[in-house]
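Please, structure for the following, as tokens.
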Amino acid sequence: MHVQSPVSSHAEGWVSRSRRGFTLVELMVVIAIIALLAALVFPMIQRAQKAADLRKAQIEVEALASALRAYLQEYSRWPVGNAAEGDVNITMVKILTAHPDAKVQNPRGRIFLRLNTVATNASGAVIDPWGNPYRFALDSDMSGGISDVHDPDGVYKALPGKIVGVWSRGPNGKSDRPDSPDYDDITSW
């Protein structure tokens, strides 16, 4: 007895064919899976980027404050003359990094600050990861604390017992009081 295979039977409508690509449905499923994976991964990438930016700002704030204290200890004066507060600028960074352009303000050529890169805005202010200038306040009268410091947005920052204060306004770009629900400033104190 002879049995015929359905695959080879052309009479019953079975046709063997080779597949040469994806069908539209298969392609749409693959695209949907990729989109789903991207939707799951994207928030994790954003959180990691935010954490990296916060950490970078904290490191830079602490490095700037430490460099200013070390400069005061070395020269018994501040690198910014009589300025008690303001934006950290590229001139200050050059003094603290012993740049050749700052030989007069740092005659011993001591390196107080080491930064891999320094980002500045058009006015020469050193900026944080969110594009806002780092701010500084100094005990310029050597009274033992910083008082009467105002940020451009008007938030008062008194730092009794501190001779140096450096801060970033954080991701929201404005100085907030620590008791504010919007507080995200990064400070050296």
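The beta strands are 85-87, 135-138, 145-146, 159-160, 164-168, 186-187. The longest strand covers residues 164-168.
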